[in-house]
Design brief:
Elements (H helix, E strand, L loop, with lengths): L23 H10 L1 H11 L7 H7 L1 H7 L13 H28 L1 H20 L4 H29 L5 H5 L1 H20 L6 H7 L2 H13 L4 H6 L3 H12 L5 H14 L5 H4 L6 H16 L2 H14 L4 H29 L1 H26 L8 H20 L1 H11 L3 H33 L3 H19 L12 H4 L34
Length: 520
């Protein structure tokens, strides 16, 4: 391993000296900022308009005609690349825009990206609600994607940096909680607007403007994070904000860690190049694998196309939306479970237990469809109830594990100098895989039929093993001291270069991070 390297920002363990508690300032900041998550979730759930007849008849007439053909294979009725593009273009646009959001987030602050995202959401909502042709509809989705790119880049960072270390996991899950609330809200709205013909779909697509307006106003009114202020040279203002959000003037230890991290961050002119260095290898691997695995659980396929999926299984239009609403409610409830347990049980236990339950659920659904459902028949009532029940169990497991933690873990592991670049990579990878799955799922469903669930179960097995072997427990570790974590991990300590830190902290030091309950 290379030696003689300068300390990576934070030079001394000070976690035990951190002061502060949950304050009104943190609560308000987290709630308003997490509205960005609700918009992300709403845009996922609102894709359910793709089963409404007036919507299909106006924009996708070929799918509308095929939908009512009794002779057509049930798995293939919605296999249309243009219809898939309506969903997937949102995420391709988001992937590109999140890379542009990184320098904005770093050079102008987290609030700047939140405001940019809110404005983009407002424009996209207006275009979609007023769409008269497919071009306008797709352009609106592109603008919503820009909003997702900026919002998903900045909001998780904002929440991680505002939250006290001992509450960071739960508070950072406000993003995922808001996402699940957005999905549930979209399902509820779709269920109601399907009865408003022929313009109910316009209401569904346009209502995203409400949280977008709140996000924009909130971004203007919220304080900037102290980490960002210090990084940009506004040190005294950064300390004042830190004292405000911690509810105490005794913030010397945390302020010193931020100052040391900022000192290094300001020497890094090319964070995307820096993130490729060996000392950032563990974080880079997590920034790529965690969001990719989150999508490969198959969750987005269920969320995007739940009404389509349920209709393909023989549910009526109303019942398919009702089933989507039920699964969205379960996802919302399970996220609350995760918030309540993540800082007590830790990230690893939730990810591994959730992974095992999701594998079982995917296999059971595949088995039911293989035995009881043919391409030209409908499921019996009993089997339909069983499928919805098992999918709800799948949602429950995802909601307490990979749903929130797929965002939380990458947002909390990067050093300040690579944090905005790391978050951009996380979001870009997530949106890239989301785009691929969204565009390909209807064709995969037509080709694989029931085996599509086995396909996703295999990926969940891989990601569960990945967490067991490669992910250290980050529970309770101050965000500016994550660098100490990797040098103590059984695998990553062999990858990391030597880091001569003060007071014996380093790969060979005797003082393990036991004070903050770090283990493999």
């Amino acid at each position: 391993m290379a030696g003689g390297m300068a300390p990576l920002g934070v030079k001394k363990e000070r976690a035990a000296e951190y002061k502060g508690q949950m304050t009104l300032a943190v609560a308000m900041a987290c709630v308003v900022a997490a509205i960005g998550g609700s918009i992300f979730g709403y845009d996922i759930g609102i894709s359910g308009v793709n089963t409404m007849d007036p919507f299909l008849e106006r924009f996708f007439p070929a799918v509308f005609r095929r939908k009512n053909l009794v002779s057509l294979n049930n798995y293939c009725k919605y296999d249309n690349q243009a219809l898939s593009a309506f969903t997937s273009i949102l995420y391709l646009s988001g992937q590109v825009s999140t890379l542009a959001a990184a320098p904005v987030t770093r050079n102008y602050g987290r609030r700047a990206s939140i405001i940019c995202g809110g404005i983009s959401f407002l424009i996209g909502a207006a275009l979609n609600a007023a769409a008269v042709n497919l071009t306008t509809l797709i352009l609106g989705r592109v603008m919503l994607g820009v909003g997702i790119g900026f919002g998903n880049q900045a909001v998780p960072l904002y929440l991680s940096e505002m939250a006290p270390a001992h509450l960071r996991g739960g508070l950072n899950m406000m993003f995922q909680l808001a996402t699940t609330l957005g999905i549930f809200s979209a399902n509820m709205i779709n269920y109601g607007t399907q009865k408003i013909k022929p313009w109910g779909w316009r209401l569904s697509l346009g209502l995203v403007a409400a949280p977008a307006l709140l996000m924009t106003v909130g971004g203007i009114l919220l304080p900037e994070t102290p980490n960002s202020l210090i990084e940009r040279g506004r040190v005294e203002e950064g300390r004042r904000v830190l004292e405000l959000i911690r509810g105490t003037a005794d913030v010397d230890a945390e302020f010193t860690d931020m100052a040391e991290a900022s000192e290094l961050a300001n020497t890094i002119k090319h964070p995307f190049r820096n993130i490729l260095e060996r000392r950032n290898r563990p974080q880079l691997v997590m920034a790529v694998c965690m969001p990719a695995f989150q999508v490969l659980t198959g969750i987005n396929s269920i969320l995007f196309y739940a009404p389509v999926l349920f209709q393909s299984m023989g549910f009526g239009a109303s019942w398919s939306l009702y089933s989507s609403m039920l699964t969205g409610a379960v996802l919302l409830f399970s996220t609350l479970i995760s918030i309540a347990t993540v800082d007590r049980l830790g990230r690893r236990k939730l990810l591994i237990s959730g992974g095992i339950q999701m594998i079982v659920c995917q296999v059971i659904v595949a088995a039911i469809l293989a035995v009881k459902f043919d391409a030209d028949k409908h499921l019996s009532r009993g089997c339909s109830i069983a499928v919805v029940f098992v999918i709800c169990l799948f949602m429950l497991a995802f909601g307490w594990s990979w749903g929130p933690l797929g965002w939380t873990v990458p947002s909390e592991i990067f050093a300040l100098e690579t944090r905005s670049a790391g978050q951009s990579i996380t979001v870009a990878v997530n949106l890239f895989f989301t785009f691929i799955i969204a565009q390909a799922f209807l064709s995969l469903l037509c080709a694989f039929k029931f085996a599509i669930f086995i396909f996703f179960a295999a990926w969940i097995a891989v990601m569960t093993a990945f967490v067991y072997v490669f992910l250290p427990e980050t529970k309770g570790v101050p965000i500016e001291q994550m660098v100490l974590l990797w040098s103590k991990h059984g695998f990553w300590k062999n990858v990391m270069p030597d880091m001569p830190l003060e007071d014996g902290w380093g790969p060979g030091g005797d003082r393990a991070l036991t004070d903050i309950n770090i283990h493999k």
